[in-house]
């Protein structure tokens, strides 16, 4: 397997892991508040990665030498992204939220083109993005009623778009400015520091429900923590590879709603396949296969 194919393989693995997040968050929020839950999750994630990074002395030396990128990733990826993401999804209807979240490859392509001259919006890339978003819309409409947004819901849409922009900016900065720092150190530090801040923030704005936490909650929390630890470390490592294009790597995020729908059919009572959803899946799959099959230049490293 060539390095380019290896990059594609691991990008798909990361997206498959992220596709479990929505169901996991839904389970966790039955027993906890959003920020309290997210804060604990990211603290555990950062601690999980720590033993697999470097020696403690080198760990803190790297953070000191590359503190700017650590601060930016913590601010954009962990804080801005998740605070806006959680708040936005609490306001907008599920189907609309899924479409806005699913537009992340488009937002990333635009942000990457603005921040990096080598990230051109090619005709093939634009067609793939348009087809991908069309597929996301069909999946969302097929699974839930698509409601017109109210004034409050428009605010929620803007929050989710803001989360997408924060993630896209973070991805481009990791690609351009994180050379020299171990990607596991970067993900460990940014998740742990961000988790601490979100946890402290939750103590100010939320009242954690005083309900006993069943085994399901703890299993879910550990899974989500592991998922974040593994997926973000892997993603940052891929972004640091030579010749990796941020916009092309993020196209694989279109598979997240596809896998999310399949998991819902398998795990959620009452969810069943709809022809609109299946059509959306086919469109997304075909667009990704078409793009990467015909794009043989070593853009992905």
What does this molecule look like?
It is a single chain. The chain is built from 14 helices and no strands. It has one domain. The relative contact order is 0.21. It has helices at about 5-20, 20-30, 35-50, 55-65, 65-90, 95-100, 105-115, 125-145, 150-175, 185-205, 215-240, 245-250, 255-265, 275-295. It is globular and about 55 Å long. The protein is mostly helical.
Report Rg.
Answer: 19 Å
**Helix coverage percent of residues?**
over 70%
Query: Would you tell me the overall average pLDDT?
Result: 85
Work out the helix count.
Answer: 14
The biggest beta sheet is recorded as: none
- Provide the succession of SSEs: HHHHHHHHHHHHHH
Structural class determined from secondary elements: mainly alpha
Low-pLDDT runs: none
Secondary-structure blueprint:
Layout: H1 3-18, H2 21-28, H3 34-49, H4 56-65, H5 67-91, H6 94-102, H7 104-115, H8 123-143, H9 151-177, H10 183-205, H11 215-239, H12 246-250, H13 255-267, H14 275-294
Helix pairs in contact: 1-11, 2-11, 3-5, 3-10, 3-11, 5-9, 5-10, 6-8, 6-9, 7-9, 8-14, 10-11
How would you sum up this structure in a few lines?
This protein is mostly helical and 301 residues long. It has 14 helices and no strands.
Descriptors for this entry?
301 residues; 76% helix
């Amino acid at each position: 397997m060539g390095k380019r194919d290896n990059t594609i393989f691991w990008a798909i693995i990361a997206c498959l892991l992220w596709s479990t997040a929505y169901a996991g968050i839904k389970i966790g929020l039955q027993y906890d508040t959003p920020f309290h839950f997210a804060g604990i999750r990211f603290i555990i994630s950062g601690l999980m990665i720590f033993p697999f990074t470097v020696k403690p002395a080198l760990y803190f030396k790297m953070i000191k030498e590359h503190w700017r990128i650590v601060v930016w990733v913590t601010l954009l990826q962990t804080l801005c992204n998740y605070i806006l993401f959680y708040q936005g999804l609490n306001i907008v209807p599920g189907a609309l939220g899924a479409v806005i979240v699913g537009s992340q490859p488009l937002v990333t392509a635009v942000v990457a083109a603005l921040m990096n001259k080598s990230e051109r919006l090619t005709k093939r890339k634009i067609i793939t993005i348009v087809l991908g978003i069309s597929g996301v819309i069909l999946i969302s409409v097929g699974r839930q009623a698509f409601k017109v947004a109210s004034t409050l819901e428009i605010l929620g849409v803007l929050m989710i778009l803001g989360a997408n922009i924060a993630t896209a900016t973070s991805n481009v900065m990791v690609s351009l400015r994180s050379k020299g720092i171990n990607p596991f150190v970067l993900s460990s530090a940014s998740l742990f520091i961000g988790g601490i801040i979100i946890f402290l923030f939750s103590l100010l704005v939320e009242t954690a429900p005083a309900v006993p936490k069943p085994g399901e909650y703890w299993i879910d929390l550990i899974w989500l923590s592991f998922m974040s630890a593994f997926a973000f470390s892997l993603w940052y490592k891929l972004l640091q590879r030579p010749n990796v294009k941020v916009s092309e790597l993020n196209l694989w995020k279109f598979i997240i709603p596809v896998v999310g729908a399949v998991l819902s059919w398998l795990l959620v009572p009452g969810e069943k396949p709809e022809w609109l959803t299946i059509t959306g899946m086919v469109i997304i799959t075909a667009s990704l296969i078409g793009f990467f099959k015909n794009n043989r230049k070593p853009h992905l490293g």
